[in-house]
Specification:
Length: 344
């Protein structure tokens, strides 16, 4: 049985990757931060199904605690380590740049150092990001395109990406960088624009919400489905040599396009409900991102399997179900709305 360690297992990608590897028969170990409110809601179904058999085990650790990371790796001796943990919200990285930068850089360094000194061959996956490119040109971006980070989050990802290459070249380690363009799902955090939209559409369709306020509606993004992208992560780790790969759909859409598709799912016009505010603009906007996944298609036989329209539909339908549950709780006085809720 193969054994893998996943940092950031409670996040969107952590859920989909864990699910994939568990179904392939892996023994999965995941790290969670010790805090007063531990949120494992995304992976609770996996915990229920796999923890009793010992196939899924969680460990307290933190990317800023190099000793705990080293201890876990040395004890469980995984064949594969996937570093998915990060403070990944770009806007938040401007408000909390120190923590964002520390977790994005020191975590990867601590894991690489532990693997380097390990007596076991361990493959390492570093989660890079399309934000590293900066979005300054309207061209398809590949593994050779120039990085021009526009946020503390993106800058920390460039550091970890380059460091991973250095360790690969210097110590002959199996280190791969997955440069993933935006990938979404019903498991996406509700502060991310796509999920803000799908949550609002669900609530608005049921009369629970009156409006949605967003920032830049003209930003272009290459949006795919997270469940497809974790397959690419795994394929990178199975390749016969370590390298860097872009995962993307090769298509770009604006936030307006996403709004239109999402509201069309419930027969509504988006501009009747959406407002914009400078409050939600980044200090340094990334205007245009479009990925070129040609290398991943050629080397890994990977491809995006979910269309843009299918992705939006999946997210909206899931959030309609959540809104239906909220409506029941509101009617019983068991829920206080934290969104723009109609009075009376």
């Amino acid at each position: 049985m193969s054994r893998a360690l996943i940092t950031g297992i409670t996040g969107q990608d952590g859920y989909y990757l864990s699910k994939l590897l568990l179904e392939k028969g892996y023994e999965i170990h995941g790290t969670i931060r010790r805090s007063s409110s531990i949120n494992t809601s995304r992976i609770d179904p996996l915990i229920s199904e796999y923890s009793k058999s010992g196939q899924l085990k969680l460990h307290y650790s933190d990317l800023l605690d190099s000793a705990s990371l080293a201890s876990i790796i040395n004890i469980i001796k995984p064949e594969e380590v996937y570093n998915l943990a990060a403070q990944s919200h770009v806007s938040v990285s401007f408000k909390n740049p120190v923590y964002t930068t520390q977790t994005g850089t020191l975590g990867a360094l601590s894991i690489l150092e532990t693997i380097r000194h390990s007596k076991k061959d361990i493959k390492f996956y570093q989660a890079s990001s399309s934000e590293m490119y900066g979005g300054g040109s309207q061209e398809k971006l590949n593994e050779e395109s120039k990085f021009d980070p526009k946020s503390p989050y993106a800058a920390s990802k460039v550091f970890a990406h380059n460091l991973n290459q250095i360790y690969r070249d210097s110590y002959d380690m199996f280190c791969v960088n997955g440069i993933l363009f935006n990938h979404e799902s019903p498991m996406r955090g509700e502060t991310f624009v796509t999920r803000k939209i799908s949550r609002a559409v669900g609530r608005i369709s049921l009369g629970l919400q009156t409006k949605l306020t967003l920032g830049n509606l003209d930003s272009h993004r290459d949006w795919g489905f997270a469940g497809d992208y974790v397959k690419g992560m795994w394929l990178m780790m199975q390749h016969n040599r370590p390298d860097d790969w872009v995962l993307a759909t090769g298509e770009t859409y604006t936030v307006k396009n996403f709004l239109e598709k999402a509201f069309n799912c419930v027969g509504l016009e988006w501009n009747d409900y959406v407002e914009t505010s400078e409050k939600y603009l980044r200090p340094n906007e990334v205007d245009y991102l479009l990925g070129d996944p040609s290398k991943a298609k050629k080397d890994l036989r990977w491809k995006n399997e979910t269309s843009f329209e299918q992705l939006v539909k999946i997210m909206v339908e899931s959030d309609i179900k959540l809104a239906e549950q909220e409506k029941v709780l509101l009617s019983k006085g068991l829920l206080v709305p934290t969104w723009e809720h109609p009075k009376g």
